[in-house]
Structure formats: structure tokens, C-alpha cells
């Protein structure tokens, strides 16, 4: 490594909190589409997208041009102090593009965790109840409440307790865990029965303010539920006066081939939380949903100093325009298909690849020990690290740390995609050969 690289690494180690993770220790200098250059001129293909934040890619020219003009007008008057058009226009647009044939309203915030917190606050206010139900393998944030709703202990929760009370985690299907003798339908029915038992054994539905559900579990490993399960959850909510919250923070804004993943299941959630790819990298989030639920909080009970920053709102309006004009839903489906086809082919050579799954361009596979079928977290880490070393920004996921996930910008070019897949292939060749299990 160069002296400059080592200097930055030393600076990071001396001044940046150890608890902040880094998958790649190079320092970015410029980025466009799905390509990043570091300060030394090294090139990286981005399959991480800032953890699903850049569906429209790095530095989209329309967004950059638009925001340069906006920057000269004002930076942040504070919506609680004086209103501005971009907040109003984005709130309106979000109510128009989210599923639900009912009157909707929106509140804008800063981060995904903040959106989930506010969805819970609103649901509690509306129902007068306290209990919150999330799901095994779910991830909802790093604040005390959202950390309590999150399933994985390390690295998200270990040593950070006590956690928020009245939070319960329900079963959620993972088809890759079913026994061979069970059909997919029988397995789903088994999990649904466990869900009904959960509301007898763990918490009574009359105490539950909301059920918060990722339509596709993100950090949990891109787990895609059966439609019957999702509809059952929604029916439980309707039968018991529970607010159904779709957490679309990682799965929203065309990632799955629809604007929101919940649309795949023909469900109209009461509330939707949005963030990540909403604003092309600007900190912005929101809660959108039924007007009567959103309006249960009185003036002054919701908000925040930086919530709905006008530049972030302008970026978000452009993102939505780009999704529509460039048909990113169709691009997501084609991109996901191309990645799945590649993985299926790679699996013919490497049986360490298992359980390839996708919804649109939300694609993942598991790394296993082919002799035992057990998750191989160590091999996963080696593959991800070598890919990063060789110029591919790649992320792992999953409760057992053995899932490799794909979150490239949906505007990625064929050349960028092929180069990234080439690097991943080489990582497999190198790592498997060194392991002596080729």
C-alpha cells in the first residue's frame, strides 16, 4: 500500500471512533454511476450503493445540476420555523406514489431509524397501545427503540442494553431453512401457525400498536416471504385494530422492480417508512400513510431540527422523476435477472454458492460448506474482503454472516456490471483455491 493510503488509515485509527465499521479503507475522491475513484486513482465498481442508498447512482447529473441552483437560494430555513416548497411538494408526491387507495399524509425526517421511531410513535398515539411487533432477522435501526426491534445481537445490540420495553419479535419465514420433506406451502403454513401461537403465547393482539415488517428483509439476508404470509400478517392487523407498517427503507424506490416492495404482495399498508435511496445520498426519510393515523399526533409532537432539509427534498423529487422517466423498475428487473443468471452459472463451478434469491434487483446468495451445508461465515468474509481489495465494493449480510448481497445502482452500465462480476469470479477462484476446496 502507498504512503498516502497508510496515512489515511493512521488518521482514521487515531481520530475516528472504533465502533464505526469500514468495509473498505480506501478514500473516495469522485464517483459517477456505479464507479468510484479513490484519491490515488484506484477504480472501484460499486455493488454496495452506500448500503442501498444510490438506486439512481453516484452523482446523477440531473440531480447535481438541480441542486447547484437550489444551493444559491437557501440551505435550511427549518420547516418548523418557515415552510418551503420542496417539503410540501415531496410530501404530496410521496402520498401519490405510495400504495393505498385512501387519503394520505407524510412527515419528513432524517434517517431510516428515525422514520421507524416516528412510525411507532404515531401508531402508539393512534391506538393508545404500547406493544410493538417486529420479526426475527429484522433490522430497523440503531437507536434504542429500533435496536430493540432489531433481531441480530452482534454487532448491533451487544452491550448496549437495557432495551426498550414492549417490543416483541414474531416468526418470519425463510424458505432456505425448511426441511426437505416439507413443501413450500406446508412450510409457510407451519410459520403462519407459529405466528398465530405467538399472539397467544407472547403478546395479546389487543395490546399491540403496530406490526413493523420489512417486505424483504435487508440486513437479515434478503429474505423474501411468501405472499400468503404477508397477507396473513395484514389480516391479523385488520382483525385486531393494529397498524401495519411496511419498512421500505432498503427495499423501496424501484429496488425490487416496483416502486415499493410491498406492491409485490398486493398489500396496502397503513404506514410506510422510507429513506436510503429516497434522496440519492442526502440524509432524508419519511413516514407516509393513512391521514387519520398520521394526524393522531398534535402539532409540535413530531419533527426535528433538520427534518426535511430542503436540499434533500429537492434531491428526492429528482430521484422520483428519474425513477419514472428512466423506468428504473424495468431496469431493476433486468439487472436482477442478469445477476441471478450469472450466479446460477457460477454455482455450476462453486457449490459453496447456495440459495440464490432475488426480488427485482435485490439479489443475494448464501455461502456454505458444501459437505455439511452449514453457513460459512469465514469464507464469506474472505470473499468480500478480497473483492474489496481487487476493486469491487461488496457487502455481506444475514444473521449468520454468510450472505453476499447485491445493491448496485440501478443505472449501472453493462461494462460496470460485467467488470464487477469478473472481479467476484476472480475472488472465488483465488479464495477457493487457497482454501484447498476447489
UniProtKB/TrEMBL annotation:
Pfam families, per the entry: Aminotran_3
Protein keywords: Aminotransferase, Cytoplasm, Pyridoxal phosphate, Transferase
InterPro entries: 4NH2But_aminotransferase_bac, Aminotrans_3, Aminotrans_3_PPA_site, Class-III_PLP-dep_AT, PyrdxlP-dep_Trfase, PyrdxlP-dep_Trfase_major, PyrdxlP-dep_Trfase_small
Gene3D superfamilies in the record: Aspartate Aminotransferase, domain 1, Type I PLP-dependent aspartate aminotransferase-like (Major domain)
Superkingdom of source: Bacteria
Enzyme class: transferase
GO process annotations (BP): gamma-aminobutyric acid metabolic process
TM stretches of this protein: none
EC number: 2.6.1.19, 2.6.1.22
Cofactor annotation: pyridoxal 5'-phosphate
A molecular function (GO) term: (S)-3-amino-2-methylpropionate transaminase activity
Coiled coil ranges: none
Reactions mediated catalytically: (S)-3-amino-2-methylpropanoate + 2-oxoglutarate = 2-methyl-3-oxopropanoate + L-glutamate; 4-aminobutanoate + 2-oxoglutarate = succinate semialdehyde + L-glutamate
Pathway annotation: Amino-acid degradation; 4-aminobutanoate degradation
Entry's family note: Belongs to the class-III pyridoxal-phosphate-dependent aminotransferase family.
PANTHER family, per database record: AMINOTRANSFERASE CLASS III, LEUCINE_METHIONINE RACEMASE
NCBIfam families linked to this entry: GABAtrnsam (TIGR00700), PRK06918.1 (NF005376)
Identification of the protein by name: (S)-3-amino-2-methylpropionate transaminase
Organism: Staphylococcus edaphicus
Gene name linked to the record: gabT
